[in-house]
Structure to design on (80 residues):
């Protein structure tokens, strides 16, 4: 079992924006290539500590950034 989670995004621009927003909130992130066994439209993803997942999701939803978690469950921002 690992204590890291991959967040997948539709493009590199969104990865960089998510990285900047989460880092700005004190959440440690690392942009890394998407592992070959994971299908993604983008070649980069964010690696975060699983303990920071809730905080990271909160930031990304606040800024209406769509992403998926390693198991490809899509997390989309709530309308409004």
């Amino acid at each position: 079992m690992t204590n890291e989670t991959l967040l997948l995004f539709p493009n590199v621009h969104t990865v960089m924006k998510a990285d900047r927003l989460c880092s700005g909130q004190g959440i440690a992130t690392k942009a890394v290539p998407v592992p070959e066994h994971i299908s993604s439209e983008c070649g980069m993803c964010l690696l975060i500590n699983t303990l920071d997942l809730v905080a990271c999701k909160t930031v990304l939803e606040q800024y209406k950034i769509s992403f998926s978690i390693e198991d490809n469950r899509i997390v989309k921002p709530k309308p409004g």
